[in-house]
Design goal:
Layout (H helix, E strand, L loop, with lengths): L1 H14 L8 H16 L3 H25 L8 H29 L9 H45 L8 H39 L1
């Protein structure tokens, strides 16, 4: 419920479209919001930051769905592809952090942008939690792969390779998972930095 509210709020801020509320109060709020948009030219910039954050959140959802599947097992190729995805997300988070720092230098306390900075902070924290979850799922995959590799190694020595992996394939898979774990650590570092810059941006706007 809380996450649904955050997502709805973010979409309202990005698109300017929200639920319909009857009465004069709603019209008054809409008029005030429109006036705020006209008065502050930075609204578009903050919408851009929020949109970029929403996209990274969606990318992380895709990664979590893949890594958290009940039958998840990554080959060397799969792990490399996932690593590229995590690198992309990490780079994007670094760029958003840089935008936060730029806006921090110019934002004024008590500005009408605090709704946007609050949404940015909420999404940054979501992204950080999901980045941590990605790291946990990769660690679990790695642990399962080690157990599977031990069984396959025994089978390979006995010459019973049917259903198992060759030693060279096991080594490739193991190296790819280790590289993926390193990518996950870099991603988490980027998400932590993003949360920090988003927090200070929100504080500065209050």
């Amino acid at each position: 419920m809380k996450n649904s509210f955050i997502i709805s709020a973010a979409l309202v801020l990005i698109t300017g479209i929200g639920p319909a509320f009857a009465g004069v109060s709603a019209k008054k709020d809409a008029a005030q919001a429109a006036q705020a948009v006209q008065e502050d030219p930075k609204v578009g910039e903050f919408k851009g930051i929020l949109f970029k954050l929403v996209r990274q959140d969606e990318y992380l959802d895709e990664a979590i769905d893949t890594l958290g599947a009940p039958d998840a097992r990554l080959s060397a190729h799969d792990a490399s592809a996932m690593g590229l995805s995590l690198k992309m997300i990490s780079d994007n988070l670094k760029k958003i952090s840089a935008l936060n720092r730029t806006e921090f230098a110019s934002i004024q306390p008590g500005s009408s942008l605090s709704n946007y900075t609050n949404a940015i902070l909420s999404y940054s924290r979501k992204v950080d939690r999901k980045s941590a979850q990605v790291g946990t799922l990769i660690a679990q995959l790695s642990a399962r792969d080690k157990k599977s590799a031990m069984r396959d190694a025994v089978s390979a020595k006995k010459g019973a390779r049917k259903g198992g992996r060759k030693l060279t394939q096991m080594l490739d898979d193991r190296n790819a998972l280790e590289a993926l774990a390193a990518d996950a650590k870099t991603l988490r570092a980027s998400s932590r930095d993003l949360s920090a810059t988003s927090k200070w941006l929100y504080i500065a706007s209050k």
